[in-house]
Structures are given as structure tokens and as C-alpha cells.
TrEMBL record:
It comes from the Bacteria. It comes from Dyadobacter arcticus. This is FkbM family methyltransferase.
Length: 214
């Protein structure tokens, strides 16, 4: 009886042209990624509610198995990505200009994550220099991204890579051009990201012998 009811419901949905949408919601890749969870909660999380960086899903899947416990990361902008990195690497430092946001995110961060509060402007752009470290990964996902990318490249370790999120935006072209001039190659990951339903791009800039083995 239950099987007949189920088949009847599916027949009605298919007749109404809704079967595909319901199937996508129940079994599709977006459910597996946790996209519906992120959309409804307005948080960048996976299907279990764990934090995810607000990158494209193809890049998240590419990056995660390549992270190593010895990595040191710097991030322009902070949030669930900071928590995600901290669970897998040695240390992450993020810079953030919004004091209220820092108050919200700081209690959720583990001891190996540090958030620097810096006002927008040159102090923010140059904050990557403050710790005296060279980084395996520098993430440019905050404000003033062209200036940040151009300045931060000098604080990568010899095997370091730079990640530029939303790299499809035309106004970030100057950063992409500069990194190319500095000898970096670019790998683009285009697709959907948590929370939103639009297509975007996350790019990683790398050289030979990089820490992600590209």
C-alpha cells in the first residue's frame, strides 16, 4: 500500500513538472554538499552544519585533501572559513575590519586561530606583514582585494599559493594580471557556492613546487 501511495505521489509530481525539483532536493548533489542547509540558515556550512569556506564547491573539494597539518595560513576576511582551516592546519591568522563581526566569530574559534582587527586602508592591506611570517596559503576574500593580493604575494613561502575568491569579477583583473607578471599560473574553479544560487569562481595562483602539489 505504501509503495502504491509513493508511486502515486511521484506520478502527480511528474505530471505537474515538479518531480525533477523534488528529486534534486532529496537526492541531488546540492543536498550532499549541504547547499540547502546553507541557504536556509544563511551560513556557509555543510550538510551536518559544520563550517565551510564561502568558496565554490569544486574548489572546496579540490583543496580539502591537499591541506596539511603543518600549514600556516593568512586570510583577508574571517568567518566560517577561518574555523574550517583551523581544524586542519597548524595556525591561521585572519584580518577583519568589522569589530562587531569579530565579537561574533571569536568565541567560535579554536586556539590556533587569531583574528586581527584593522581599519580599512593601508593598515588592513599590510596586516599580512604584522606577524613576521611567510605563509603556505594566503586567502584574499575580504576588502580591497586587488591591493591585498598585490601586497600579500611577497609574504608567501617559497611553496606558497594565493587564493582569490569571486575572481570572475572584472574589477579584480588587475590582481590577476599582476600575479601573472610575478610568475604565477592560475587555476579557476567555477561553480556554485554555499548560501547563494549564482555561479562564481574561486582561483588559486601557484608556481612550480607549490604546497598543494598542483
Amino acid at each position: 500500500m505504501l509503495k502504491k501511495i509513493k508511486n502515486g505521489v511521484w506520478n502527480l509530481l511528474n505530471t505537474a513538472g515538479l518531480g525533477g525539483s523534488v528529486q534534486l532536493y532529496l537526492d541531488g548533489a546540492l543536498k550532499q554538499y549541504g547547499w540547502f542547509q546553507s541557504f536556509h540558515s544563511k551560513q556557509s556550512v555543510d550538510i551536518d552544519g559544520n563550517p565551510l569556506p564561502w568558496y565554490t564547491y569544486p574548489f572546496i573539494l579540490f583543496l580539502k585533501p591537499r591541506l596539511k597539518p603543518i600549514f600556516i595560513v593568512f586570510e583577508y576576511g574571517s568567518g566560517n572559513s577561518t574555523r574550517w582551516y583551523a581544524a586542519q592546519i597548524k595556525h591561521i591568522t585572519a584580518v577583519e575590519h568589522d569589530g562587531e563581526w569579530i565579537k561574533q566569530i571569536s568565541p567560535k574559534l579554536p586556539p590556533n586561530a587569531t583574528v586581527l582587527e584593522r581599519p580599512l586602508g593601508e593598515t588592513y592591506v599590510q596586516s599580512v606583514r604584522d606577524t613576521g611570517q611567510l605563509y603556505n596559503i594566503i586567502v584574499v576574500d575580504g576588502r580591497n582585494r586587488v591591493k591585498c593580493a598585490n601586497f600579500a604575494v611577497d609574504f608567501l613561502a617559497e611553496n606558497g599559493v594565493l587564493i582569490l575568491d569571486n575572481s570572475e569579477r572584472e574589477w579584480y583583473q588587475k590582481a590577476k594580471d599582476y600575479l601573472k607578471e610575478r610568475g604565477f599560473r592560475r587555476l579557476d574553479f567555477i561553480g556554485m557556492a554555499p548560501i547563494v544560487g549564482i555561479e562564481t569562481c574561486t582561483s588559486v595562483f601557484y608556481r612550480d613546487g607549490n604546497c598543494l602539489d598542483i
